[in-house]
Every structure is written in structure tokens, then in C-alpha cells.
Amino acid sequence: MLEQIVAFDIGDKRIGVAFSDPFGEYAVPGDTYFRTGDFRKDVSAIAEIAASRGATLIVCGLPVNADGTESVQTEKTRRFVEALSSVAGVPVALEDERYTTRAARGDLMEMGVSARKDKRKKSVDSLAAAYILESYLAGARRKREMKEVGNDYEDGNNIVELMDDDGNTLRFEHVMSFQYKNETYCALTPEANAEEGDEDEGAEVAIYHITGDEGDEYLETIEDEQFLDEVFAEFCRLYEDFEDADEAEALEPDDGE
Fold it and tell me: pTM of this prediction?
């Protein structure tokens, strides 16, 4: 079962929802939950949303003042999170949410979202939840434990086992997941390359399309070589944000088995 992290931006009237991709690399805004005024009912509803996503971890934004001190809203959120923790059945983490709503509003302006008040508020809440989750993922990227079918950790590497058409098991290290033209892709490198760590020879990278229904995702090879080159170019651009440019340039695309 793939890992799923769900994040909530808890407000007095609305609760923004966001969820992670299967590899825990980025956040996707979900639908905003409108509170009913019944505390227990709202807590149960949020727990159900997390459960419906198959959440293995819940992340809730913690509102604090700009200087880091706590406010009345901080106490309200802590109370909600404490109640959620008692019924959710999975761990609940807190993440500093300073500036997330402001950043979300800025993005909405850039994207040209309608100025209708109700639509804008719903979008702000969802984007704020996504920012909260992105912040958590960035801080936990090298520490989190991924619970995926066929994946385990060896020597700090995320190893993925895939089966080729002949029934042979191939082992890869997961490099990253990313989006391109509204679709999700992941980059894998053969385990042998990860173990050797020979930068002089370069490392092959296989790019796969993540497809399938939620909770039943699978990896699909990209048959169109021209489009594969486009996706690989996007991977290189993103990879350079995390690693040295020389390492990214040494990678060579491969459509995998």
C-alpha cells in the first residue's frame, strides 16, 4: 500500500485539505471542508476524510504569530488536533503555517482565479493546506519512512522493485516524483548505479508515468521517445534544484524495462 499524507488548514469556518503524491514528493490541493458548528461532528468528518484517502499520517497547520508566539487561534487549533488525534487512528503532526495563507492568495492572483468571495476562500484554504504539506515534506524528505509495496530502505536509499515482461525482478532507487503537463511521473535509477556511486560514468535514469486510480497506482513506461525527452528535460530542471548541475547533466534517459 502506498504512503499517503493528508494535510489540513484548520479554520473557524473552513478547513482546507491537501494530500501527497504516492512518493511523498509534492502536495495536491483537495476540496475545502465547511464546518458545521458542531465540534465533534467536524472532528469526525475530518478523520473520515483522512481515512478515505488512506492516510498513514496527518499534518495540521499550526497558526502562530509572526514572531513565533502563540495566539488564541493556536489554542483552538491545538484543541482540534488533540481531538482529531484521539479518533484518527494514525499519527498527527503539527507544521508551522505562518505565511501559507498569504502565499496562497498570491498564487491565486497569479493564476487569475475568479474574485468571487466564496470561490476564492475555498481556493485559498486548499492552497494553504498544500503549502503546509509542502513545508512538512521539505523538512522530512530525507527522514520519512515510506510504506509502499515493493519498497524498502537499504543504506538510506529508497529501493523500488519492479517486474519486467519476463517476470524478472529489477531493483531501482527512487530519485524523485514530479508533475509535467498535469500528469505525474517518477524517476528511478538502477540499484547498481546507486551502490557504485560512480559519477564519472554517469547514471542511467528511467522515467515512468504514474497512472491508475487512487490507492491502486502503477508505473507505466513512456513509449513516445520525443515526449520522453520532454519529460526527462523537466526532470533535469527539477533535479538541479536539489543536486549539483553536473550530476543532473551526467544522467542519461532510459525508458526502462
Answer: 0.51
